[in-house]
Amino acid sequence: MDMFKDVCVRPGVFYLPGNREDMRAWPVVACDQYTAQKDVWRQAYDFVGEKPSALRLIIPEAYLDESDKRIPQAQAAMDAYLQSGVLEEALRGMVLVERVTQSGARLGLVLTVDLEAYDFAPDSTSEIRPTEGTIVSRIPPRQKVRRNAKLELSHVLLLCDDIRRTVIEPVYARRESLRLLYDTPLMLNGGRIRGWAVEEEAALGQVASAIRGLKAALPENGILFAVGDGNHSLATAKAHWEEVKAGLTDAEKQDHPARFAMAELNNIYDEALVFEPIHRVVFDATGDAVLSMLKAAGLVADQAHSDLTLVTKQGEFPFRITNPLHSLPVGTVQTLLDRQSGLNIDYVHGDQAVHEIVEKENAVGILLPPMDKALLFPAVAKGGPLPRKTFSMGEANEKRYYMEARKITRE
């Protein structure tokens, strides 16, 4: 559409199940959650049973070691769902989303972003930038999933710094005039989600105009959209596009489906958008070993002003950092962990999940404090991506669930 020609987002052609009367088995939590908790994924498979589900179209990262078997199965399911009518074109436009969780009602717009406007390099100055460092080695296994797939499903959450609430909130204010696409509870304690079709030219034009206004107000080196969650998924889409476009003419590159990636846009000032810390779990380690590893941070036991808490089978032990290696505690911890070779580390959402893992495994947890989300855009604009796994937008069950699908091939 011409109204979006000078902004880096577009409406999309989105597919949903043809039968949306009971969708409880269709949406599923992001693939990079519960990576050390296969029992949670087994619950998801048990809940879905034989019903059609987005679960059959993704590869949970807990099972990446089985990807050679699972990738063909997921791609075959995509073909079958398209051919049988399980999935059908639901709209051409955007989807207004209301996601209700324990943190409140979070609003979003599902749309597509131009991957030419996204660069995950540490020194990126692109309009769309990562908030955390990208581990390039994590891209190829995920690229195998996307390569030869006809569809993408997305758990990418983009953030805009829209204190005047000009982009999403005006669309939500007139939601009663929009076509309701779905209204369903979500499995695994995910709350509830409603989605409306934003398809009329006037509504889409309002979104384009508001984004254009945000762009015009950016300071020097300002960020239009920051990747709040799913950066490695978006980086995979970018790598795939670079691979695809190498074989295209200049004309074909302009509107090829793989040039765009699906994402949900959120306003960082949304009250239900809560920044949660991402904790570390070190496997095959003792509390003393982890303490020794972190001694360069000058840890001092401090219950009242703790920067981190070690979790062992013997209990919790709060510590303050007296020799910081980074402005954020998570940066100090990650720097020290990165200096060690051969560590088996997992990144875990939620205090309870850390305790459960430590209880079952030979492991030590490191609980970290949350980050002030108001600092995000200035920090990334000034210093580039934050330390890896600095924050999480909500608990694991609050992540974006896979719902809409979108074709990324011309077939």
Please, could you describe this protein's structure?
It is a single chain. By secondary structure, this protein is α+β, with helices and mostly antiparallel strands. It has two domains: 2-274 and 395-407, no CATH class; 278-371. It contains eleven helices and 19 strands. The chain has helices at 38-48, 67-84, 139-146, 169-173, 201-216, 231-245, 250-255, 287-293, 329-338, 351-360, 376-383, and strands at 9-10, 12-17, 87-101, 104-114, 128-130, 151-152, 157-160, 179-185, 192-198, 225-229, 260-267, 275-283, 299-301, 308-312, 315-321, 345-349, 363-367, 391-393, 406-407. The strands form three sheets. Strands 1, 2, 3, 4, 5, 7, 8, 9, 10 and 11 form a ten-stranded mixed beta sheet that branches. Strands 12, 13, 14, 15, 16, 17 and 18 form a seven-stranded antiparallel beta sheet that branches. Strand 14 and strand 15 (315-321) form a beta hairpin. The longest helix has 18 residues, at 67-84.
Main beta sheet strand tally, sense and closure: 10 strands, mixed
**Contiguous helical run count:** 11
Rg over C-alpha atoms, rounded to the nearest angstrom: 21 Å
The residue fraction in helices comes out at: 25-40%
Order of helices and strands: EEHHEEEHEEHEEHEHHEEHEEEHEHEHEE
Estimated structural class: alpha+beta
Low-confidence stretches: none
- The overall pLDDT, averaged over residues, is 95
Shape descriptor: globular
Strand count: 19
Please state roughly what percent of the residues sit in beta strands, choosing from under 5%, 5-15%, 15-25%, 25-35%, 35-45% or over 45%: 25-35%
- The overall number of domains is 2
